[in-house]
Write a structure and sequence with these properties.
23% strand; alpha+beta; Aldehyde Oxidoreductase, domain 4; 777 residues; globular; 19 helices; 5-stranded mixed beta sheet
Length: 777
Amino acid sequence: MAPDSDPRLPAFGIGEPVRRTEDPKLLRGQGRYTDDVNLEGQAYAVMVRSPHAHGILKGIDAAEALAMPGVLAVYTGADLADYGGIKCPVSLPDRHGKPMLAPRRPALPTDRIRFAGEAVAYVVAETALQARDAAELVLLDIEPLPAVTEARAALMPGAPQLHADVPGNLALDFHFGDADAVAAAFAAAAHVTRLEIVNNRIIVNAMEPRAAVGQFREGRWVLHVGCQGVFGLRNALAADVLNVEPGRLQVLTAQVGGSFGMKAGVYPEYVCLLHAARALDRPVKWTDARSESFLSDNHGRGHEMTAELALDADGRFLAVRLDGTGNTGAYPGLPMPITMNAVKNVLGVYRTPLVEVSTKMVYTNTSVVGPYRGAGRPEGNYYMERLIDTAAAEIGVDRVELRRRNHIAPDAMPYQAPSGMAYDSGEFGALMDQALSLADWDGYDARKAASAARGKLRGRGIGSYLEVNAPPSKEMGGLRFEEDGTVTMVTGTLDYGQGHAATFAQIVVGHLGLPFEAIRLLQGDSDQLIAGGGTGGSRSTIASGTALVEAAELVIEKGREAAAVVLEAATVDIEFVDGQFGIVGTDRRIGVIELARQVRTLTAAGTAPSDLPDTLDVSHISNNPPSAFPNGCHIAEVEIDPETGVVEVAAYAMVNDFGTVINPLLVEGQLHGGVLQGIGQALLEHTVYDEQGQLLTGSYMDYAMPRAIHAPPFRFASHPVPATTNPLGVKGCGEAGCAGALPAVMNALVDALSPYGIKHFDMPATPEKVWQAIHAS
């Protein structure tokens, strides 16, 4: 149902706070996640993982494992040698125009181990317990080598080398910007602020660990797996790894228990399952244990950056410069977070004439680092917002005034940023003012005094942000009229918690007037798709929404032709109003679903006139619009207990511009989740390896995750300025919570600690670190 409906809006249409349609099923335990998939005759796989972070693989002895009851096979890298390696999804040129050094990742290594937890072999047995018992008996002969886990250490002379064809472990030496012009701006600046900033590495910890079931039937593979887009995953697996035509593989995804970027790409386990399914002629299932997920899932973040901001005598920004490293782990992850996404997002909402980014992507003996909610967007905004607060303190200018002085004005739109992005819309100053009012900025002194009376330190921080959504790509928009009277939307994004079914249905309701309850969503079957960019980069409503709007227009076009035949009128006399086709000036009408039924009936009977379309179904590929620019201002207040170092986010206000808001209820929910993830990174989460490459934070005993008690009281408001670059005017909201939370919380923390002379603090601000900083001061 649609709670708190606005009577001025059509029921279940665009702008209505409609609840997620999948929730009743999920709350009853009727969801179908990957581990719920059980196929007749399936066997079970368990991975054998390396205990060493680096070493020469000299041999594998599987004799004892093969003799165990129920064991069907033990496979090693030699058995998978005919498959192609896993390819880096994006390749960028270095500062000299040469391609990045991105060795393909083997499904299983045959010569060298590169991180602790890397799959080296796998056992397939009749039961999962039999497979696990046997896996413990597989003997690995590994000659240990020295390991390196930090990016800057991996670049040092004499550091252990991970790949023979990657000298110095340097995957990519990236540069963007006019170095001479930026250097001149800094030389002429009245003031320069410089910070060394660590963006701590995150273990993703999705609610549902990775799992998959592989089949081989009738000459083709089927992979059941939780992912972020079945079309792209199928293509990458088929073309790059299996070396077959895409039609030889079907990828199926039902419910997904979280991903945040981590489940987007190809993993070695998928190749292993598909190989075993064909070799054994039976389905093979694998479900990761949480302890293995810590070791083998792609991690997020993991950057060290020197950030600099140049200002003139009036406090206006002249240039921003980033120089740093990103830890990509043992194999190439996504290069975007420390390269082009840093370029596009560090400028935020501020008029800054020049930007330069010089970053190095470095291999280390750790798990691969890939995309994590925002993939460079929150990081870029975090660097700029920390610089601004620090600069304001250094030059004695109010931090609100310094931001306001440098905002891009609405009359500057469209604004051509030095990043190459063209901002189409935004009211950054007015939005910040709304956030200050929502946060009761002027009443802060009383709250600070109340905290002090309880022996607590209080601080407040601003986190303004502007994100650049994922670049455009082709997306499917399909509408299929079913025999039972329902309508199926088909599109290539994929819902793994976002609430696509309700949101996309609202778009279709708004454009075709169909009953909301009759609309279904199909996304998770690659055989049903003709295009699909998956869900990531806050692109889904822009991409699928645009594709569905265009598909609806095609339905109306075909419907006019069909209605003209059914209603016995000329096509030019047919109008479409409120979900019905009718003859202009008459009361003769027919609804879309009924018209589709009549067309289907006439076509099936072979009695359709020659000028009647054979169906109202549409299968459309959209060339999606350019990136949009969601933005906002988040304001956090924290309380710190100086006796224990415990930090609490005491209040949180946020105002966001997501353009046209399709479903305000789901947008607010997305922001709550994103903010809490940002709080987790800011205050709790930290991935730690020792010098031998062993993961020290390999369980929830050692890795702190945010819980419900860490969620602050939220104040939420929207300041929508519709995008001009897509038909819905939407901007995307999925990653904005992290983008606003990181700077807002950390700026508030530094503000609270400023009486101790503390000017910067790196995430995570754990109680131990905060207590030590207070006492060291």
